Amino acid sequence: MATTCVVCHDPLVMTVDPDSDVEDQPSSSSSAAQAETVPDDLGLACGCHYHWQCILDNASSVANSLTCPACNTYLSSSTPPTINAVYTSEGSSGEPLDLLPTIREEAYLSTNPGARPARAMQTMCAEGDVQGILELLSETEETERDALLRYQDPLNGMRSGLHLAVEAGQLEVFWLLMWLGSALRQEQFPDEVWGLVQALEVGRIDGQDIRSLRDGSGRTAGDLAAELGGVWAGIVGAGPVPVNENTITQVSVPEIAQLFVIFMELRYAS
Ligand SMILES: [Zn+2]
Ligand SMILES: [Zn+2]
After folding, report:
1. Interface predicted TM-score of the whole assembly (ipTM), two decimals
2. For the chain (length 270 residues), average pLDDT per consecutive 10?
3. Which residues lie within the region annotated Disordered (predicted)?
4. Distance from the CA of 75 to the center of ligand 2, in angstroms?
5. Hey, which end of the chain has fewer CB within 10 Å, N or C?
């Protein structure tokens, strides 16, 4: 088995910083001696091994040619194409994976570096990370916030953050996005949502109403919610929204239903 990376020829390990607790303790050995290593070994079907970052550094050429950058072997054996790989790291002990989606994303980001924060935003929409979204927006120039909020991902069917929040049933993100990027008036929001955005001093972001953004199949987020009716109906009927670390307030069922109705009524608004 290979022990070094075909790109940089270093051992297939990654150095992890010693715990800060350890660092603070007096020790006669150098800090370099305390550094630990964990596996970082990506094996391709051709037999070449890479560090994770070293294959990502070659993402554009791999995405275009579907060949191994080191030995030029064609890596896909299926239609649509996949790149079978095995990755061994601290957290995974060599499960097979399809590397192609990651490679395509990285290739896209390397030619569109401006899309990186927008894709981070989309991930947070899907995961329900309200705090993360607010932090990202506060770090973003005011003139860039519109593009961030209304970004539609060409690698993900032109979905917007609102599509992803609806798809993942993320009610808190859904409210936040509606506040930030829809033309709904203040009095159309449940009191709790209004109180929350006021407490957080979240302003609204001018631009196209996010409810009118259509994905690659021509669907608005409202159309998507209608398709997913069961999920959304289930959330509406399931009782109070469970409190988690991002929940500052608890909202009752009638208020969820009220907002849901407003959303559905206006789903074709433009
Ligand atoms: Zn390497
Ligand atoms: Zn190879």
Report:
1. 0.97
2. 90 80 47 75 96 96 96 92 93 88 92 88 93 88 90 90 90 87 79 75 85 90 74 42 33 48 44
3. 17-36
4. 8
5. N
